Amino acid sequence: MTDNLEKFWGRLDDINTGMLGATSDLRLVPMSHYVDRKTGCLWFITAKGTELATQAALGPKDAIHIVSDAREGLYTRIHGQLSLSEDRAKLDELWNAVAASWFEDGKQDEDVQLLQFRPTKAEVWTTDGSLAFLYEIAKAHLTDQKPDMGDHFSVAL
């Protein structure tokens, strides 16, 4: 695995939210993702009646997931395919108190829907975090040099 790919997955693994949507309408909604590095997928737990679940029920959809987290120093736009999943073992693995708060009957609720997002590519910006940013800005003012804002790269997934 390349250093950039490892950096991408490593930082994404420490973040749990982003904005997800089908590229056909670009209506992005906040969603919690679960990283599955073994399969290279992101998983989402949603309700069957949501717009994303309804769109994915028609077949796999081109989708985008945007993650921005200053604390972890990761900003990324991830492209891929979003589809429904009926994988109960994966749902059991991912289920947690946050997901349970949305469904009256827990993971047995008939409205629970698992979504699988298979990333194909990502554009990534990484930084060393907020304090490093402030340091670089201050240093730039003192030295007249441009600040080092971190790395920018693309990865195929």
UniProtKB/TrEMBL annotation:
It comes from the Bacteria. InterPro entries: Split_barrel_FMN-bd, Stress-Dev_Protein, YdaG_split_barrel_FMN-bd. Gene3D superfamilies: Electron Transport, Fmn-binding Protein, Chain A. SUPFAM superfamilies: FMN-binding split barrel. The lineage of its organism: Bacteria, Pseudomonadati, Pseudomonadota, Alphaproteobacteria, Rhodobacterales. This is General stress protein 26. Residues 3-148 form the General stress protein FMN-binding split barrel domain. It comes from Paracoccus homiensis. Pfam families: Pyrid_ox_like (PF16242).
